[in-house]
């Protein structure tokens, strides 16, 4: 989006000073995010992807409830909530599109890749603190922004449907991968086993614990987590699992040289220690004892989601070439296999 495409109403609704520049902030596969620099201040401006989030008002309500909770009980906690318009709206609709404006927190930055295991520690501490502080928040008041988002059985079923409806060429290209999917079905059974335990508790989870969702200061210390669109009731393995999926390996889900995929012991230790910094007193002993399985659950789930999207002609994740989702799924299976081999995790 260039300056010209910025809805003119935005400036009026938020009473923005003169805009100097608009910069596209890439990274995510879902929303469109921009940095707006005005003569006075900087902002983060976001257009919500309503294909993925069909009810943006629900997310807005979640954000307002959480902001109120933090304001009432943990006023020192930095919760980056959207800015209200002059009509006190924290989300605006213009011609069927939904937008939000956030403050840009001065002196912070985000990294799209981890630069050290210490950053993994800092990030894990931030995600742990977020859920830990919300331990007394009434979890059922939090809306579900995407139903069955981290539900592995559901994701497996979606993949099966996609397989049944896929064309022959796609099935052929994914045959070897499909065998691995079936061979690892035990992870779905383990997931079902976990969520039906009484001591596996529904908590407010962030559900997108990638490193670029952590604000860091100049010394690369964690300052806050951001991007609460998928913040909803969930289970202990969601954020830990996404951190293991995206922090343990030196290369991302986009890497097609699969020989570069490995899991790093010092990063595992950093995530584990960082997460338990605040969550140790919150998690049940069952959850703590099974925390290391989080990586497998979420990595397998992500592989299923990429494979499903490949079979459905890349409708969900942004793709630069037709086989990208298949490559992402293969990448995630390499990672899963590396995790399963690591004795330091289990
Ligand atoms: C999507 O776009 P991003 O990075 O915030 C997805 C996550 C996936 C991730 C994989 C709402 O997140 O669940 O793990 O892509 N978010 C949604 O890169 O589907
Ligand atoms: Mg996101």
TrEMBL record:
Keyword Hydrolase: no
All residue ranges annotated as the Aminoglycoside phosphotransferase domain in the record: 22-249
Record has tRNA processing as a keyword: no
InterPro entries found in the cross-reference section: Aminoglycoside_PTrfase, Kinase-like_dom_sf, Pseudomonas-type_ThrB
Pfam families per record: APH
Matching SUPFAM superfamilies: Protein kinase-like (PK-like)
Coiled-coil regions, chain positions: none
UniProt GO molecular function: kinase activity
Keywords from the named record: Kinase, Transferase
Domain of life the protein comes from: Bacteria
PANTHER family in the cross-refs: AMINOGLYCOSIDE PHOSPHOTRANSFERASE DOMAIN-CONTAINING PROTEIN-RELATED, SLR1880 PROTEIN
Protein name (Swiss-Prot/TrEMBL): Ser/Thr protein kinase RdoA (MazF antagonist)
């Amino acid at each position: 989006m260039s300056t010209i495409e910025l809805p003119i109403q935005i400036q009026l609704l938020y009473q923005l000073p003169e805009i100097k520049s608009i910069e596209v902030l890439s990274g995510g596969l879902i929303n469109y995010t921009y940095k707006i620099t005005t003569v006075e201040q900087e902002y983060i401006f976001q257009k919500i992807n309503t294909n993925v989030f069909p009810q943006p008002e629900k997310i807005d309500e979640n954000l307002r409830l959480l902001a109120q909770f933090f304001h009432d009980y943990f006023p020192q906690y930095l919760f980056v909530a959207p800015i209200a318009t002059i009509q006190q709206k924290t989300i605006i609709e213009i011609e069927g599109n939904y937008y939000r404006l956030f403050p840009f927190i001065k002196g912070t930055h985000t990294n799209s890749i981890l630069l050290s295991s210490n950053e993994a520690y800092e990030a894990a501490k931030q995600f742990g603190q977020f859920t830990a502080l919300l331990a007394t928040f009434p979890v059922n008041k939090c809306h579900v922004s995407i139903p069955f988002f981290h539900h592995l059985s559901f994701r497996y079923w979606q993949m099966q449907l996609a397989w049944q409806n896929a064309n022959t060429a796609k099935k052929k290209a994914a045959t070897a991968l499909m065998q691995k999917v079936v061979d690892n079905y035990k992870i779905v059974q383990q997931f079902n086993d976990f969520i039906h335990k009484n001591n596996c508790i529904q908590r407010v989870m962030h559900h997108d614990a990638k490193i670029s969702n952590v604000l860091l200061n100049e010394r690369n210390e964690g300052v806050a987590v951001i991007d609460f669109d998928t913040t909803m009731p969930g289970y202990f393995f969601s954020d830990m699992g996404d951190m293991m999926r995206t922090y343990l390996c030196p290369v991302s889900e986009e890497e097609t040289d699969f020989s570069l995929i490995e899991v790093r012991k010092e990063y595992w230790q950093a995530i584990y220690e960082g997460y338990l910094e605040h969550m140790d007193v919150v998690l049940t002993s069952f959850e703590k004892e099974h925390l290391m399985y989080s990586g497998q659950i979420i990595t397998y789930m992500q592989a299923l989601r990429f494979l499903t999207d490949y079979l459905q002609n890349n409708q969900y994740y942004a793709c630069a070439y037709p086989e990208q989702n298949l490559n992402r799924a293969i990448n995630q299976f390499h990672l899963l296999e590396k995790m399963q081999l690591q004795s330091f995790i289990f």
